Model the fold of this input.
Amino acid sequence: MVLKKYRFPIVAIIAMAVMFAVDKELGKKAVTVTTDSLFQMLSVLPAVFILIGLMDVWVPRETMIKYLGEHSGIRGVIISFIMGSATMGPLYGAFPVAAVLMKKGAKFSNILIFIGAWSTTKVPMFMFEFNSLGPRFAVTRLVVDVIGIIIISYAINRMLSRKSIEEIYEKAESF
Done:
């Protein structure tokens, strides 16, 4: 069971050991990149987990269902976009937040919209593009992204069976 659960890190460590044995310089680079990534992740995740804990305690399930649940409609879509766009940090920070949203009863398509917004419509990125690439580019990219995120979210929601979505929610419960 432990081997199955940690198979990816074990395979990665074995691959790095083989790489190190074959080419020490390449192995050193791999170790350096891995440790840098690990420290970057460890510098972000504590803040994410603190925010998740606060959201889990402070936001009642009924409120989450009202604003992001099955019957939230366009309001849920807009809130999901705002939540995702207003965030900072790398995309892997979105998944623990998404798990808490699932626990609190958010609709699956709103979760997908949140993750899509986190990855592509962040306010700081929009401001950078607006200033450096021009308003026409920034607004065009934002509009295309918003439309694309909505289409993809609803397409994924329709393509997955109810059972598959329920399994995803069950995994989120164990988080």
Q: What stands out?
A: The chain is about 85% helix and 0% strand.
